[in-house]
């Protein structure tokens, strides 16, 4: 940064000096040549860092990494791991959300049951071969949903729902729970 500040300061000084010299030149015929000469000096001053860089005199990479203003306290590997972890959490959350929506939609389509709360437990490790395999499903019906049926019919109806869910999602019957609230 100091290098850039010095460079800009040098350009400003030369521009001020050129204005003063231009005012000191007496005749108009000489002013043309003075302006051209001053223009060349300003142009060389502006291009000087680029010329030094092309000659190999200035090593910008070494300057940046020596001062490394933007690299201080940044652990790229740690940031990458954290981003990967957040991405994985988002994938798992989205999968769970869509799975629950699918189960609810299936219950509405097959049995015309609405207002069901669904909770699912599944393999959440993305690196596991069985990622997404459902371990348990819990369905919660509101008591008004099942109120029109008697106790025996409720049990048969619940068993029918369990069998349908079990067959479709390949979950053992014992891992499907139906609760009435």
Automatic annotation (TrEMBL):
InterPro entries: Spore_III_AF
Transmembrane segments annotated in the record for this chain: 6-24, 36-54
Lineage: superkingdom: Bacteria
NCBIfam families to which the protein is assigned, alphabetical: spore_III_AF
Protein name: Stage III sporulation protein AF
Keyword entries, A-Z: Membrane, Transmembrane, Transmembrane helix
């Amino acid at each position: 940064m100091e290098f850039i500040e010095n460079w800009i300061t040098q350009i400003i000084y030369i521009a001020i000096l050129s204005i003063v010299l231009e005012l000191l030149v007496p005749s108009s015929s000489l002013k043309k040549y003075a302006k051209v000469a001053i223009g060349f000096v300003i142009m060389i001053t502006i291009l000087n860092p680029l010329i030094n860089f092309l000659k190999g005199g200035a090593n910008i990479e070494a300057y940046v990494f020596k001062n490394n203003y933007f690299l201080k306290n940044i652990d790229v590997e740690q940031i990458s791991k954290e981003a990967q972890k957040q991405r994985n959490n988002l994938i798992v959350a989205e999968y769970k959300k869509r799975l629950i929506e699918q189960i609810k939609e299936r219950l509405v389509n097959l049995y015309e049951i609405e207002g069901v709360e669904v909770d699912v437990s599944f393999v959440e490790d993305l690196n596991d071969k069985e990622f997404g395999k459902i371990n348990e499903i819990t369905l919660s019906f509101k008591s008004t949903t099942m109120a029109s049926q008697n106790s025996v019919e409720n049990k048969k109806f619940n068993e029918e729902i369990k069998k349908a869910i079990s067959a479709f999602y390949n979950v053992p019957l014992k891992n499907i729970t139906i609760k009435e609230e």
